[in-house]
Design a protein that fits this description.
alpha+beta, Elongation Factor Tu (Ef-tu), domain 3, OB fold (Dihydrolipoamide Acetyltransferase, E2P), 4 domains, six-stranded antiparallel barrel, four-stranded antiparallel sheet, 8 helices, rod-shaped
Length: 410
Amino acid sequence: MLETLMCALVTVLPDYLFRRFVQGKRIGHEITLFTMWYELRWGLTTCAILALTVITTLFYFHPSSSAAASYFRTVTILPQLGGRVSEVYVRNNEQVTAGQPIFRIEDFTQRAQVESAHAQIAQVQASLNVAQTDLAEADAGIAGAQAALAQSLEDLERNTTLRDQGSSAVRLAEIERLENLVAEREAQLLAAQSRRAAVEQEIQDLIPAQLASANAQLDAALTELDKTVINAGVTGRIEQFGLQVGDYVSPLLRPAGILVPSHSGHDRFEAAFNQLSAQVIKPGMIGELGCMTKPFTVIPMVVVEVQDVIPSGQIRPSDVLRDVQTNTVPGSILVYMEPLYKGMADDIPPGSNCLANVYTDNHTRLEHDDLGFWDAAFLHVVDTIGVVHAAGLRLRLILMPVNTLVLSGH
């Protein structure tokens, strides 16, 4: 409408003034409703062509979108284990902080596993005490075996000396008996030493390994016990939470509620623009935003990122070949926008539906590039008609409450 009125001021109006004051034709006489096309044909044709040209140029170089919103991510409250709820710590719509308990499920099995792990640790520690006693006993056995061996060696040495001196008080059978006794007591000493080495090996390797295994089982049991208490992963607000003691929750089928993070969806908006805008919209461009949750307010925005893929071309492997002809609806260019000035969008709730404009700015090119007359004139026109789009956004924001509350019946 605004573009047509502007074009009519330089086409239809001069044509009418020429017919009226130069040719002397009058409305209601020579210029009537039936003769208007013929009398004002040049102005009407020029106006239509110029209006279409201006509108096309305007929407191409200054894209607009009616699909803009601040999307936010929700966190589903799910337990890692299935079970019945034994205690609930929060209420619906309550603000929670990261790590705060939300509810707890029955933990009889997990507590039994923890007690079993503690008992196993106590058993291993008792085994360590017994092994230390066995080590002391082995040391005593080695000392006894060494003493007995020393006594046997002395008796053998004394009898052997007497035999070598030719004494008749020594019998060969006695010497043989003493030799066998020495060999037996040497074997007993080796057995006592081996027993002590086995006890040392048990104290140094076996019992520490058993203790480490018991501690690992305790850690696993405590981890399973911790899973029975469901904590908030992020700071946010609890929504759709009607959990009661005795309810059954499951990580697959029975979620407990939804957690809306406090930091999600603020100061960042996503807008979908037509694919024709792919070569126009670039990061750093200035735009404007107006939301239904804050009518009559225009928020200056800046484009921070442009998604480099179009969602309509996404494929997912399946057992059916995709036919390109079925993709009848062209996808859009996703543009990420943030407020140009900090704090201007703080009072806009996440998920708000908004209108967005992005404006092409050729000021730098006009100031620094060496352009010809027609190129410079065209860039001036492009920058100038952006005002029309800005006025259109403000007009739509003014009419938004009327359209929503009156004309739509809501």
